[in-house]
Amino acid sequence: MFGTLSDNFVATVSRDANRTAIFCGDRSLSYGRLNAEANRFAHYLASQGIQKGDGVGLLLYNCAEFAIAFLACQKLGAVTSCLNYRLSPASVGYALHQEQLRALIFNAGLSAAAAEIMSNAAFCRFICVGEPVPAGAASFAESAAFPDTEPPAVALRQTDLCNIIHTSGTTGRPKGAAFTHETQIASAIQYCLEMGLDRGHVGMSLAPVVIGAATNFFVAYVFVGASQVMIGEYEARKALGLIAKHRVTEAFAVPTQMYQLADARGQLADLDISSLRVLRSGGSPLPRTLLHRVRGVLGCEVLNTYGTTESCTAITVCHTGFEPEEKWESIGKPSYFQNVRVIPVREDGETEPDEAIAIPGEGQLINRGPQCITDYYCLTAEKLRTRGGWQYARDIVRVDSDGYLYPVDRIDNVIISGGENVYPQEIEFFLSKHPLIADVAVCGVPDEKWGQTVKALVVRRSPELTTDEIDRYCLESSELARYKRPRLIEFVDALQRNILGKIDRATLR
Fold first, then answer.
1. What is the pTM for the complete model shown?
2. Residue range 428-440: average pLDDT?
């Protein structure tokens, strides 16, 4: 029904060859020029032995070469593997070996990590974007000598694999979720519908384009024939300047970046960023105070999403422009193409999909949809939690009487204190609303009397914040049950978070 990514890209080029596809630094590439560069690189990869079904790693910043390499691989029928450059070389190397990647494309700024990986991967071709090119690697610039004509046609089906996106790896090694052309395009269409995209829009991802939600964001703009800005390395003031320069209409940002943009806006009040209509986010609940600040300071709406790598998409969405204000702290309701249920949680095993909870209530969210994967890529020992086509993400949510979903926490993070289940994320979200708390993480620590007791690690905005003030804040609020309040509080300088802004639970423990 959808065809392949290459089919759709060629159709976009034929329709809009002169429209700008990519802005990157001082460069801009029209769709016609992007197609020509992708053709050159496809010919180059083919000369290196890359063919249909081969894995090609993209260890890249947000740059034009990501777009060129990604699309070149789709023309060859190769499977791109999006690798998070903020992971350790050991984690990237693990994925490279696990997936037996035939080539790894990386920025010169990541040469040290690439060199460490290169020393034990003779089966892989290493290709460097920029200068200097480390010993043992080839230069991306070599592709300029190849023709810009379409490479020889490859027999592709929409059910063939096209792209691998990895889980965040906060609880173990990253695992690859493999998209088919069909699922990748379905995710792109979903993003277009959620954000109301057409060819006149300009997008920019502030998060690395190699992470799942940002990759889907990138593909959506290519699919619809819109423009997008490649930011390179993110910095808040730089991002605001690019929004003004290129009249960006939508940006993808993690919650931490949203705070930073709002802070930086005060220093750049003269910039005209009135083109920005939506900030898209995901991965965390957003406090209403932050949402009001973004709308007031940046002048745009916020589209918050909840999803999983295994679903290859957003499962639920909450748009401040369409939802009542009292629902803004929710993750909304199911998005396009997604079915969602909330089922009871049992200690003796998983509940059947048809055993839905009474509403309002609390339970485990399960979902199914056309983008959901069935297996992890090249990991036969890692099994998905599924039943009857439903994916069990092991996330606890609360459902209100109107059907809005509110994240509580992952089942695996539960703290059992005095026989009561306590979820860290619920407490973190509550504490994050205190004006003097800049960041917070909650965990359970052993306790002889209670089994576990709740401990909070707090980053202060001001030294005026004390443990007594935090305790008073908890006791005086009706939002948090007394038994859930932290009994131990430690002030720290910073907390370890992953690329999506999620707390690194493994490191925290």
1. 0.86
2. 92
